[in-house]
Amino acid sequence: MAEATASGAVDVPWAEAVDRVLTALAFAAERHRGQRRKGLTHEPYINHPIRVVTLLWEVGGVREVTTLVAALLHDVVEDTATTLDEVAARFGAEVAGIVAEVTDDKSLPKATRKRLQIEHAPNASPAAKLVKLADKIHNVKEIGSAPPAGWSRARREAYLDWAEAVVTALRGINPALESAFDEALVAARAAIA
Q: What are the CA-CA distances from residue 109 to residues 9, 11, 103, 151 (Å)?
């Protein structure tokens, strides 16, 4: 039976929480199978959602299972053939809603998608803000240490400026994650200077 925590969040039993997270991890791994990150290391794509959920857990202190599950699934609709209906059927409407909030509409031009991320960030749900913030931390770290092949210094700087604008619109949600972003941004800018 679910219990309310001191913060008011509903806490699910430990075994149920682990099951939900592991099920989401397996689903994301299957959907991202064969995909690689664009960075110099071309690591398996699944490592990215794992790092995002790890940042939420270890740095942000996030313990809300629905947010952690959504973090693992945050790119499955945007970057695979998975639909929001599939996410909702497997993981519930709340998880699907968070995933929808952080998913870009790839039918739009890239410049429009980037602008919309900045515009939508202040009005996102708390869970979506946390996922987006952890996502930006990991992406900024990679831009500094292992950027996509062929990205010029100017393109990397433009990405960092844009990521900073998105995170500025997210601020106030989690000071520890915000500080981690600031540190990652300083390190990335130093690496490409």
A: 38, 40, 14, 19
Active site residues: 78-79
User: pLDDT exceeding 70 applies to what percent of the chain?
Assistant: 94
- Measured from the Cβ of residue 130, the count of other Cβ atoms closer than 10 Å reads 27
Q: Give the number of other CB atoms < 10 A from CB of residue 129.
A: 25
Specify the pTM. Answer: 0.92
Return d(Cα 136, Cα 174) in angstroms, integer.
14
CA angle, 72 as apex, 69 and 76 as ends, to 5°? 115
Tokens 């972003």 belong to residue: 181
Q: At 8, is the secondary structure helix, strand, or coil?
A: coil
- Rounded to an integer, the average pLDDT of 124-132 is 98
Is CATH 3.90.740.10 correct for 9-192? Answer: no
Q: 126 to each of 16, 84, 116, 190, how far by Cα in Å?
A: 22, 19, 17, 31
For the chain, domain boundaries = 9-192
Q: Which of 184, 170, 86, 83 has its CA nearest to residue 142? A: 184
